[in-house]
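Handout, page 2. Input:
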Amino acid sequence: MPTIAVVQGHAAAAGFALALCHDYVLMRSDKGVLYMSEVDLGLPLPEYFGVLFRAKVGSVSARRDVLLGGMKIRGAEAVRLGIVDGVHEGEEEVKEAGMRLGEELGNRKWDGGVYGEMRKGLYPELCGVLGLEVGKPVLPTL
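Output:
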């Protein structure tokens, strides 16, 4: 099934990566940043973080600025860079937008197995580093 991350405040390091693991990301425009702190803290990135960012952040310069420059990204900039799908003013507004999107997507009644395989096919390098094989269900079928 499609997944939606609703970022209510700061999403740093693993929180940023977790948000990127979703199909859709919504963020507040009035509060919070996306931030990869590893370069500022002198910590190396796990391989799968680099693969995730290559798979989900299309702009080479945006990846450079985020991963190698420690750029803190606010909502409007995250939309411009293609990192998030939408920004909304305030806690209630972003939560409601996430619920609306979830209902819209849920009403499509897509086959979850097909959706999951299509998602894995979009990100083969990421699935490979995580040990997920395209063509093999993530969850056992009943």
